[in-house]
């Protein structure tokens, strides 16, 4: 575990048992509990530029999602349940409960944010605050893809049936993932990433079981996760926790038609009618590309009184 240790000085680390194996966790700091969840194709290391600052006022918990990083990568079931965001949300609840936290704040980026809003809808009493970094609701993304407003890109490719995507990626996984990541940064390169962080992401993605897990994550997004979103929208369910939406003006806004709704508008018109937040100058990886401006929005939000 020493390879990532200096990213999080003073943080404890270990494994926590869940319904589908174990998840890897680091935690440190004092104060109200705050869970940080990473996105695709990264690990908990993506928070290394902000975790120390947040730990000054919070007990910060960093967790590798199932299938990612050092967490177990169970065999998937074609996108039905194993890699659904509902199941990953249960992992998060279990970890936080084992650490003694019944209620907690959660900030997620990318896939981790999808776990976050699903957990908020499924377990409305658990979250005090919810931070959603650079995403739209899963159902809204698929609607835009199917309408032709945005390309299907990796969403459509990764959700194809096994083993097509797994075999294609496995020919050169590092090249595949780093092409995606560089295309999502504001400057179109990998220069924004710490060299050691990139090495951690490479190690965590260059393995057949991990590649399969990533694909299953997206298969679940195209099927189970989307169906659960549809059901909640039909039932007019909304997130009760205080919610903050932060997005990168280059990445998320750049995928929309000019004059279209902002990310905040989309959330207010769906699952989070009272959401606050705003955009910052960044590509997709806000916590690594522009941590200062992300924290300028996030820290005051986390210090507000919970509803």
UniProtKB/TrEMBL annotation:
Q: Which Pfam families match?
A: Abhydrolase_1 (PF00561)
Question: Does the record's keyword annotation contain Disulfide bond?
Answer: no
Q: What is this protein called?
A: Haloacetate dehalogenase
Which species is listed as the source?
Saliniramus fredricksonii
Gene for this chain: dehH
Care to name a GO molecular-function term for this sequence? Answer: haloacetate dehalogenase activity
Which key words are in the record? Hydrolase
Gene3D superfamilies given for it? alpha/beta hydrolase
Bilayer-spanning residue ranges: none
InterPro entries named among the record's database cross-references: AB_hydrolase_1, AB_hydrolase_fold
* Its EC number(s): 3.8.1.3
Enumerate the spans annotated as AB hydrolase-1 domain. 32-224
């Amino acid at each position: 575990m020493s390879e990532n240790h200096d990213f999080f000085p003073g943080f404890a680390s270990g494994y926590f048992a869940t319904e589908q194996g174990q998840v890897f966790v680091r935690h440190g700091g004092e104060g109200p509990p705050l869970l940080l969840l990473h996105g695709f194709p990264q690990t908990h290391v993506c928070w290394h530029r902000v975790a120390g600052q947040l730990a000054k006022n919070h007990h910060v918990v960093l967790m590798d999602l199932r299938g990612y990083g050092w967490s177990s990568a169970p065999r998937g079931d074609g996108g039905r349940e194993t890699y659904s965001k509902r199941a990953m949300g249960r992992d998060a609840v279990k970890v936080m409960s084992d650490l003694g936290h019944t209620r907690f704040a959660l900030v997620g980026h990318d896939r981790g944010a999808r776990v976050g809003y699903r957990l908020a809808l499924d377990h409305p009493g658990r979250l005090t605050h919810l931070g959603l970094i650079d995403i739209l609701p899963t159902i809204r993304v698929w609607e835009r893809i199917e309408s032709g407003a945005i390309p299907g890109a990796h969403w459509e490719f990764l959700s194809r049936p096994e083993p097509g995507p797994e075999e294609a990626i496995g020919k050169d996984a590092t090249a595949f993932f780093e092409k995606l990541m560089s295309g999502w940064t504001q400057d179109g390169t990998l220069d924004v990433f710490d060299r050691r962080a990139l090495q951690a992401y490479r190690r965590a993605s260059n393995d057949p079981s991990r590649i399969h897990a990533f694909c299953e994550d997206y298969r679940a997004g195209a099927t189970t996760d989307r169906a659960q979103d549809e059901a909640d929208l039909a039932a007019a369910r909304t997130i009760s926790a205080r919610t903050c939406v932060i997005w990168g003006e280059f990445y998320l806004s750049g995928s929309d038609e000019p004059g279209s709704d902002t990310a905040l508008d989309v959330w207010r018109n769906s699952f989070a009618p009272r959401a606050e937040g705003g955009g910052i100058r960044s590509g997709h990886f806000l916590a690594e590309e522009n941590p200062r401006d992300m924290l300028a929005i996030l820290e005051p939000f986390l210090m507000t009184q919970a509803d």
